[in-house]
Amino acid sequence: MKQYLELCQYVLDNGTQKGDRTGTGTISTFGYQMRFDLQKGFPLLTTKKTAFRLITSELLWFLKGDTNVRTLIQERNPIWDEWAFEQWVNSEEYTGPDMTDFGLRATKDDEFAKVYKQEMDAFKQRVVEDQAFANKYADLGPVYGKQWRSWATENGTIDQIKNVIDSIKNNPNSRRHIVTAWNPAEVDDMALPPCHALFQFYVADGKLSCQLYQRSADIFLGVPFNIASYALLIHLIALECELEVGEFIHTLGDAHIYSNHVEQVKEQLQREPKTLPTLRVNIEGKSIFDLETKDISVEGYDPHPRIKAPIAV
């Protein structure tokens, strides 16, 4: 995963100090590309432990067309908790402690962090126990799963994932194997507009490759997940289409390191990458749409310890 470490160093050396939507501040650069040969191992970051189970359950959530974090909470996956929680605490029904800028405040104020955790835990419990509440506050709007599986049109919906699978199987040389999550008509209704916005598949020599365009890339927390998620997606689509895997090409727009992640990035740059793990998928007798988190695993993953950092919401 030297490609990822090279990205980190490049942004530290060449990035520009910029403000951002979250108020955290970033070191940012525009336009960067990495390439990963999936024949050489599964690109799961080894310079810090990365939670593959969370990556898997999130991707399967996308592939099933789900947009409600209730499913993820039940899977013990907190990736999207903050965006759902933000909808709840900003609503007229919420009457608890002031949660303004909870993400930043929780990293600077230990007492507030305790209150925030209590409120978050109560929110998640209510989401799981109260379906009506989950429908109202835990649904993130027309985010990735909705766009991938049921893009709305005047005449119904479009299942982009099934369409691209059919296209790869029946017309592998096409240059139209594209899936987009960026829907201008619905972007304002999403809890978070899609960061990984568009991807294109490519078939050559019996191998399936994919290029992703990511408009916004949180290098320390988000990008390692994005790399592994799209590598996994390529493996799954390749299995569905009876192809081998080729390359994952990751093209970044605004590639940034948050100001409160700089020390963590520098710590990671001191670590030596280890051997990449191997992906295992138990797909016998199943479609990729039927897979569960337990069907997917990695073998030989021996990373350096986890490095904690706050998420910017």
From TrEMBL:
Pathway note: Pyrimidine metabolism; dTTP biosynthesis
Keyword field contains Transferase: yes
One Gene Ontology term, aspect cellular component: cytosol
InterPro entries: Thymidate_synth/dCMP_Mease, Thymidate_synth/dCMP_Mease_dom, Thymidate_synth/dCMP_Mease_sf, Thymidylate_synthase, Thymidylate_synthase_AS
Binding site for (6R)-5,10-methylene-5,6,7,8-tetrahydrofolate: 218, 312
Location(s) in or outside the cell: Cytoplasm
Pfam families in the record: Thymidylat_synt (PF00303)
Record protein name field: Thymidylate synthase
Provenance organism: Sporosarcina pasteurii (Bacillus pasteurii)
Organism taxonomic ancestry: Bacteria, Bacillati, Bacillota, Bacilli, Bacillales
